Amino acid sequence: MKSAEVSILVTLTIAIDFVMGELKGAFVMPHGGIALDPSKFHTTNKTALEEAWKIHTACAQIGRIVTELQPDLILLSTPHGISDMNNFLLYLNPKMEGYANTDNTGPPPYVSVSVNSDVNVSRDLVQHFGSKRNVSGLSAYGPPEESTEPFPLRWGEVIPLHFMPNLNQTKVVILSQPSRRYNDDMPTMIPELLKLGSDIGKYFKSEKKTAVVIISADLAHTHSKDGPYGYSNAAQPFDDACGKWVENLDEQSLTKEAASYVIKAKSCGYTGLVMLQGLLSASSDGITSWQSQLYANYHPSYYGMMVASFLRK
Question: Has keyword Signal (predicted)?
């Protein structure tokens, strides 16, 4: 092929990518307050404190990566937002803001974020999926897309977004997981979550905007008998299976192995991880078009916290 033809082909490829948009990357980030500022983590365990700092450093690194990617928008999945019993919700206020504690158990100091919502994308997703995917929209204190009051956010959204340096330049779309995730039949949601993730991935292929996805997720909440959910021997195997999924891009590690432990492990973020698997698999070359990296997978407190990235090869 002649150099002029190569030049035209490269230019055309870049133009197509710009017109069609793309999903530039996906990330798993914890929402435990420990990640915000480990200096305020109330522990005398040296190993736990070291792990907390590793998690914090990894979250800051994800923030820098997202800044370098310069996406038009961030789609964030939260398991601790305002939720419907059955439907996945997309928030429809033009502005969203909220706060979180640095340890999730004590008094201030707080951290806060204020973000602009891409209500056009949120509305499109609601209309695109609707009842066929159990997706609906929710507005607060006013008409959808018009309310002058901000939609309220808390730790599930605020903590991951806190690590994004240029939020004033990037719009945000928030997807809230339904509260039926708390039920013991959570594994039965797996096919639905894979399909929804796949459909979201295909949606962004057809859009003229670039995006990154952030899955707000903590892992097993049963690592300690002193924690609010007690101890379970399923906790560590669950966290290990999630880590193996990231490192090997092996769906079975997540949808079979981790699924077998999730009820006893009590992970708030599991549904978001499964949805992400479906989204990544929707790429033109499937899951193999992604390069994954596991930055941290620890439980400095009673719950597991994982930081991971999935970037295009």
Answer: yes
